[in-house]
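hey can u check if this looks right to u? its 474 residues, i copy pasted from the old doc so theres a chance i mangled smth
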Amino acid sequence: MSNLYENPLITRYASKEMAEIFSDDEKFKTWRKLWIALAKSEKELGLNITDEQIKEMENHIDDINYEDAKKFEKELRHDVMAHIRAYGIQCPKAKPIIHLGATSAFVDDNTDIILMDRAFKLIKNKLLKVIDVLSDFALKYKDIPTLGFTHFQPAQLTTIGKRACLWIQDLILDYEDLNYRLKNMALRGVKGTTGTQASFMKLFNGDEGKVKALDKLVAKKMGFNKVFDVTGQTYTRKYDFMLLTVLSGIAQSAHKFSNDIRLLQHLKEIEEPFEEKQVGSSAMAYKRNPMRCERMASLCRYIITTLLNTSITSSVQWFERTLDDSANRRIVIPEMFLTTDAVLNLYLNVASGLKVNEKIIEKHVMNELPFMATETILMECVMKGGDRQEIHEVIRINSLKAQEAIKDGEENMLLDYLKNDKRINLTEREIDNLLDPKKFIGRAENQTLEYINNVVKPILKQNVIEDVNSVIEV
């Protein structure tokens, strides 16, 4: 056990893959890759940079001399300069041209975008995996009637599969948002101290064509087709808000799902996975708490509220830049991705092991169905010559009577009341024939089939989904 605080996102919740993306080691390796891309591009455009210098830099991408960097940062109070100095120790021939013409934001901002791009790709794979699992669930239960709820009060019937489509649709909207962002990711590029590229205009003797080409060459070498057209010293912090809004959207969708499952588990209709030796309560041995969905809700709340931080940061930047964004972003960006990763791990785990108690669901349906069937009974009576207003009043009085009896702990006797009321011009058999739950689900089954086949499957087909370990260890 450590005697220092450890972030639970690392020790308990997020995956190793996501944690590695936002590790210091990955950040500083990316800085070196950016310095190499800059040097190569400057050489291609005519600056006096040798292959030997570039080769020297490439030989030390991974073996970062952290002790030197630490020593320099203590002296300089500047992390980028510390790493430039440390890199220069390892690359004495390349030392004069490392970071040539650039400002700190060249490595800081471009690295943030590069790491977010990688993190989004991991999130996208997990999001698609959850959609895939829920799609199988929706198809399996596409025609199983269940109580619909509005205001958490029993409403018209739906099906288990159709309700799952509501969860999937939220995730599809998140997927489309994420996909748009991935396709349009833009680097800050090579813009200089205040975004004017003045230092590069100096290096290239006023040749604007070469300065513009440098911007695009560096981006291309780092795997990007787009750069910001204009920046200050940093890219606009509004972009962080726009990107991280995708994660907030995923959190909103997951929170909604987790709430639904928690409520359904209270009703004993659908339950999250529960291990053989899992303990629900240290005091109440019988408890079977929805702890995974509760954890999902808790983590989602953190993502949703943390997004506010990025909007404030965006709004308070002064002119070309201020530094009050830096410490904030070091925490907010990684933690929002790590938390979203943890949420999707939970979502996949829960969705893969949902336990559907069909008998309980059927019992709840049949307890409420007599009330829902009253409109159908009314129509049938009228079609057989009954007076609509008189029949409506008969049903109303008997419904109120049945509801009062239920409140006193009795069974729902509405159908018996109606069968025994001579003013209802239907036989007992005719009334019973109206009570097949599947007659009350409307187009729910076909809506499920159409949505999965026409919307979801084409998306799943056009993506290669890698396996994800959904086992929850803690």
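The first strand starts at residue 145 and ends at 150.
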